[in-house]
Write a structure and sequence with these properties.
Blueprint: H1 2-28, E1 30-31, E2 38-39, H2 46-62, H3 67-93, H4 100-103, H5 107-117, H6 120-152, H7 155-177, H8 191-207, E3 231-237, H9 243-246, H10 248-267, E4 271-278, H11 286-295, H12 302-309, E5 311-312, H13 316-322, E6 326-330, H14 340-344, E7 348-350, H15 352-355, H16 369-381, E8 389-394, H17 412-415, H18 423-430, H19 440-460, E9 466-472, H20 478-481, E10 488-495, H21 498-506, E11 510-511, E12 521-522, H22 526-534, E13 548-549
Parallel strand pairs: 3-8, 3-9, 4-12, 6-7, 6-8
Antiparallel strand pairs: 1-2, 4-10, 4-11, 5-13, 9-10
Length: 555
Amino acid sequence: MAGVSNRSGRWRWTALAAALVVLDASLTFNNLWPTPGVSWNGELSVELAVCVLAMAFGSRWFGPPSRPMLGLVAALWVLLVVGRYGEVTAPALYGRQINLYWDARHVSAVAAMLVRVASVWAIFLALAAAALIPFLLHAVLRWAFGRVTDAMGRLRERRALVLLASVAVLWFVGQRLDNRFPAVPRFSTPVTQTYARQARLLARELASRGAVTLGPGPSFDSDLARVRGADVFLIFVESYGAVSFDRPEFADRLAASRARLEADIRATGRGVVSAYVESPTFGGASWLAHVSLMSGIEARDEDTNVLLMSQKRDTLVTTFARHGYRTVAVMPGLQEDWPEGGFYGFDDIYGNKRLEYDGPPFGWWSIPDQFTIARLDALEVARQARPPVFVFFPTIGTHTPFTPTAPYQPDWARVLTKRPYDQTDVDRAWDQVPDWLNLGPSYVQALSYAYTSLGGYLRLRGDRDFIMILIGDHQPPAAVSGGLAPWDVPVHVIASRKDTLVRLRAHGFRSGLSPAHPVVTRMHQLLPVLLDAFGEPEKSTQPVFQAESKARLRD
């Protein structure tokens, strides 16, 4: 009988230890980069220690919790697990912490992207996991809390739990009050801090409505003399980050396509200078980079962006328009109304539908970047007896998850037909499936396609006078760029106007397609650099727009 009792006791202690490990690991796991998976390195949770103390005193004063109460505690713990997962996964895969107030509105768009590019089986498994994981997690956590509750009913086990939990709380407090306190064992950041941070962000956003102010923008008084008569293309290359140069595994694989692009530039009598600038965003929210550069006002958050859009200001677009340019936005990813176009002051906007692509679909928005370039050429550049054009073109071919990448078509005339590619090339592209655990190769392939398309167009229009500004909007998500990557992006200016290139070199740009660290400036401060390279200050300028507030767009 004594042997049976000893075995029963050992089983209880083993089950209790397992329950404590499960509860601790559920709040202290870390991301397993570059995957959405997690790993545990043995950190401790002070929240578990506080919970154990609360259960010990609660059981003594009020008796053991009922089964419904255990279910509620397990459900609340699931919320903590979800918070922990978001806290460690978002920075690892996306590159920054989540702001639920602003990020939640983009969930549906991200989900639509994933559905568009993922296989049916991947979608099914994702939905099944979303439904089953919380249920299974709740069941496991309820079992674990049940073991802890059972232990509270036995004096020896309760005392051991209270002692361990008390030491853990005191150790946690000691580490934060005195740097000389032993750093081992390590405690993870409490998940309650994550939710507290989100609450503070929400309170700050709500309190700051109407309180955010913007200073004056830069001077837009360049006479554009050094580029007068040339077509100017401002091309934001999606997810084109410094990581494509800094990480050897990317740079080595992109070396050949970069060499071809540079050869295309030289063969057409043009030159190129390059630099790094710091983007106001990371891994997404491209529009913040767009508005920062074209307005000269740094927009690092939606509050600033919305307020800026509610004001009548001069922009790079209106500056070119004042000097006789036709200004157009070519946006293959634009599928809805774009009120921001009115803020910029474009003469015309070509969205997804107006581009009239009839070929096979590739990626989230279906339209290959090479087609967009060819269509822009047909609609605007190839026209006879026209004014010079200023073009704003945000590409989409290098958007996460980067596949499928369209094949490059050397016959540019065929690109605009209903059968732009051979079927074998289409099938080969469609066979590309995103490897969500390793997006690097897809990223390289997509960038290589962008280089080839741009180089091909430069050769196609080798006789044209172009100023082509290629700039990244932001680094790719941290799943590609890695943790703690800088917010730097490359900018290249391709031109046959030597005076413009010389001026940019004076601002820190270097000759060639390879920029050098450190950054020459931040994104919004690049605007006056470009205007200086494009011309001299005008002796007498037309008044630029003042920041006159209109009704805020969000209202």
